Structure formats: C-alpha cells, structure tokens
Amino acid sequence: DEMIGPRRIRALHEDVVNKIAAGEIIVAPVHALKELIENAVDAGSTSLEILVKDGGLKLLQISDNGCGINKDDMAILCERFTTSKLKEFEDLQSIGTYGFRGEALASISHIAHLSVTTKTADSSCAWKAHYASGKLAPPKAGQSAEPKACAGRQGTQIQVEDLFYNVPTRRRAFRSASEEYNKIAELVEKYAVHCAHVAFSCKKAGESGAGIAVPVSATVKDRIRILHSGSIANEMVDVEVANEQYGFKAKGLVSTANYIGKRTTMLLFINHRSVDSSVIKRALEQTYSSFLPKGGKPFIYLSLDIEPNRVDVNVHPTKREVNFLNEDEITEMICDEVRVKLGTVDRSRTFMTQS
Ligand code: ADP
Ligand code: MG
C-alpha cells in the first residue's frame, strides 16, 4: 500500500473569503435591509422609501433624503471596514449603534449587484456607481467603472439586485417570496414605530396598494395605530424607567390589561438597533400573566438606551440577541415599572383576575 502524502495548503482567494463572510452575515434579504435602514437613519434622513421585488431577492431599493455620500468617497464606499462612524478601537465604546463595522455595504457587494446614487447638499449633481466584490464596477462590460454624474435629489438611493445570485445553495433555500416580504414588512414596521420624525414607506414593486406608509409627523402612538391597529393604540400606556448605577434608560409604550393579544408583539430596540431578547420578553410575559386572562399576550414597544461600554459590541452580527451588564436587574426594573402602570390603569380588572 502506498502512503498518501498530505495535500498542499493554500490560501483562499480574498474574494472567496469575502463571499463566505458575506453569506454568513446576510442570510436573508431582511438582514441586508436592516443595515440599509440603519445607514439611512444614521445619515439624518427624515424620509425613507423602500421598494421590494420578489421578497427582496430580485430587488431591494431604499431611497433616503439624508446627508448623502461625498463623490470622493465612492471609490472606497464598499470596501471592507471602511466607515465614517469609527476611527479607533476605543471609539467602539462610545458609539451609539453596534453590529456591523463598515461591513454592510461590502458584504452586500459580494453577493448582489449593488448600485448607489447619491447627492450631498453642496454637490451640483448626483453621482451613480455600481459595485462588485467591494470595488467600483462598470455597469456593463466595456463601460467605465467611474461614478457617473446624473440628476437627483439630496440623499442616497441604494439598489440591491439579484441577492445571492452567486450563492446558489442559499438562493435555493428560499421557499417563497411572500415569506421574505413578510419578514421585511415586520422589520420596517418596527423601525417605523421607533424612528419617530422619519417618514417610512415600503411597497412591493408593481403593486398599486399603499403597502406600509407612515407620515413624518406621526407620533409613536399614531405609528402603532397606522401599522397595527386603533384598538391596540388606544390601549397603550407610557412606561419610563432609568437607573444611573446600571447605566440605562428605558422608554416605551405597553398595552394595558384591556388588550388581549394571541401572541406577544415585542418591538425591542437597544441603542436604536432592533434586537431580540428572550430574557426581557419572557420576564414581561410573566409580569402580564397576572393581569391577562390565561393565554392573553401583550403588545410591547420598548426602547432601551444602555451606556455603550456596558453592551457587548463584539457579538457576531448574525446573533440577533445582545449581551449587556446587569441584564437581570435592568429587566426586573422594567417589569416593576410595567406592573405599576398596569395596576394603576385598570384596578378593577387586576382585582378580578387575581381573585
Ligand atoms: P457602517 O455603517 O458600519 O459605517 P456600512 O458599510 O454600512 O458601514 O457603510 C459604510 C459608510 O457608507 C458609512 O459609514 C457611511 O459613511 C456611508 N453610507 C452608507 N449608507 C449611507 C446612506 N444611506 N447615506 C449616507 N451615507 C451612507
Ligand atoms: Mg451601516
């Protein structure tokens, strides 16, 4: 028998590495859209228009009226780890959002056809560029890759076409476009409640219906009324709790004991990023269980500001859950506040369900 020698070890091509990384971060169209929404909000936009084709697999388009991107930055815009929001590692501790660090656009450019049209206030025209694998790319073979001057309003429009076109296994994993659209709509609705002072619209391409539409002037309660229902909005009470020792502030609207949902609706933002927390969710459900009939579930919108140095920013972006210090204490303080509010709003009901 002949011995089999070891095979030679080789480095993967950089583009292959980036493509694998991108596919791990962006698993579904909704993950790409989340980053694009946050970028638009970070840019100071007061209006955000989203257009979706085939559940985001054919097209995700997001147009904002924010500060725009300097033409001179367009060449490096989609390279990995290029950002205008962070300079030093220490800055990680003072940054208000977390998740990707200059990786979102880069990732998208590796697994989709990406184009960006943008205009700053002091530019006389808009600029449009196409990207592939982190770099400027010609829109068609033989054309120039340089940004092209065009007409446009201040702000940025990002088009993501044919997501996962070069990741066939991922593409095949999608069962239905409407399932992906529902995830997108749910995410947009969350941000549209949270980002008061920003108008949101979200539509399926080619459909005449209004889709999601929230005007800029709508209050948080208005937004819940528009996106969810009047009967929920009418049964919401304000909650607010803060604690210096634990470095947090929580503000939100929660349903009273008069609202009995079939399942918990939880709109949770930590430092303005939509996240999941099974710890907070379960604790609040527990709190509500003594106010609601068996099986009744609440509607909760909660915005939690936690001192950034208490939040684990190094959690992998695919983890939708977050870690922060004193999670149990903070959760308990929020539940206490909710309990007090539920008690004062409807004593009679509390009395009834407890007896
Ligand atoms: P990050 O948001 O972590 O900086 P991204 O890859 O998401 O990384 O974006 C890279 C940079 O591109 C941002 O720092 C910002 O300067 C710019 N940018 C992205 N989207 C927009 C937008 N809609 N409006 C203005 N600037 C944007
Ligand atoms: Mg970003």
TrEMBL record:
Coiled coil: none
GO biological process terms held by the UniProt record: meiosis I cell cycle process; mismatch repair
Cellular compartment(s): Nucleus
GO molecular function, one term: ATP-dependent DNA damage sensor activity
DNA mismatch repair protein S5 domain residues: 224-343
Principal localisation: nucleus
GO cellular component: MutLalpha complex
Keyword set, alphabetical order: DNA damage, DNA repair, Nucleus
Family from the record: Belongs to the DNA mismatch repair MutL/HexB family.
Record's protein name: DNA mismatch repair protein S5 domain-containing protein
First-to-last residue of the parent protein present: 22 to 376 of 716
